Amino acid sequence: MDAIGSNYAVQDVEQIMSDTRAQARIFTLAPGQNIPWHHHSEVTDYYFVLRGRLMVKMRTPDKVCELQAGDRHQIEPGTPHLLCNPGAIDCEFLLLQGGGKYDWIKLDG
User: What is the pTM of this model?
Assistant: First the structure.
């Protein structure tokens, strides 16, 4: 099953909670799937890897974080980033977002 996000498709997205200033979702990325380059104006992203591997690529400065089950990572508002599953099994992660109004601004690859 493909869950559709903002201009991208992933294996699954489960909405845990959502209000005007925060949301929580569990994402599942199949091997090789990605969430393309984007940023958020106000919200901070908090990633908690539950299963598999998650690669977080950032710009300005260029940085790559490879996370595995039990790892967490935070991305501040305005930081361009891309997420992908570099592993051979599904990657499942909890995404908490908050601190302001949610937006998803696509960037060129």
Answer: 0.90
